[in-house]
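Following the same procedure, backbone shapes were mapped to integers, as reproduced here:
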Amino acid sequence: FQAQDYSVPGVHPTPTLSDAGQLWGNTFPYINTASGVIQYATAAGVAPSYIAEAKFFRALDYFLLVQTFGGVPLDLGSGRLQFNTSTARGSVRDSVSMVYTKAIFPDLNAAFTDLSSSPRVTGAVTKQVAQLFVAKAYLTYGWWLENPNNIPSYPAETGAPRKDPDGHDPAWYFQHAYDIAVTAIQNPGVYGLQPTFYDVNV
């Protein structure tokens, strides 16, 4: 499926543009599987590179969800960011700032730290891919904090609206996004930019 980034100004869900329910319904099982790998892989003797990949994909799934729906549940039934074995069907949506600062950023930064610059298999995620997604997430969250278009947030943030729990302002996130992206572009590993658009399709 293709997820639409509804956080981009001018992009709004319509019945013909996207089935948002498909994103919601498909992504949480992926998140739960990734949480299971993260939680139990070390005890099962699974290589750290697999755990790093699971963190990357859990962060990516939450990133897709938070851009589309705002705050989403971090607790699927067995605790925040835990593998869910519960049959409970209820959930509570965390705030946008919680999703970014408690799930997306920690997972992407851990993936960046633990992944290799060389993919485990052809096409697998690498350190640089995680770096670029950290940059994109910082940029997107900084835009959300700044809220230039006065878009309401769902669910409503507790306390001061659009306040970063770590005390950073949008400029801090924009600068970090820039610094990280430049580093990743200058040291791309196997997934570098191509000199021309033609070369992308050769």
In short: DSSP finds six helices and no strands in the chain. The chain has a mean pLDDT of 86. The radius of gyration is 17 Å. The helical segments are 20-40, 48-69, 96-114, 127-146, 170-186, 197-200.
